[in-house]
Amino acid sequence: MVPVSAELVEGIDELLRMARRGREDFEYQAAHGDYSDEDRAAADARWTRAEAVAHLLRGGASRT
């Protein structure tokens, strides 16, 4: 585990907020049929990986 500063925790939180907003935008566009099923599946897989990384980052930062 790497110790992190409060500033880095704030940066991680902002990065997570940006990722969530991007996902919400994607969901909105996908609801209008702007993406194929393959595009949607690929985006879902990327989002799952991003959520896993976010969980690790946030968990590690909050414990220090």
TrEMBL record:
Superkingdom in the source lineage: Bacteria
Name the record gives this protein: Uncharacterized protein
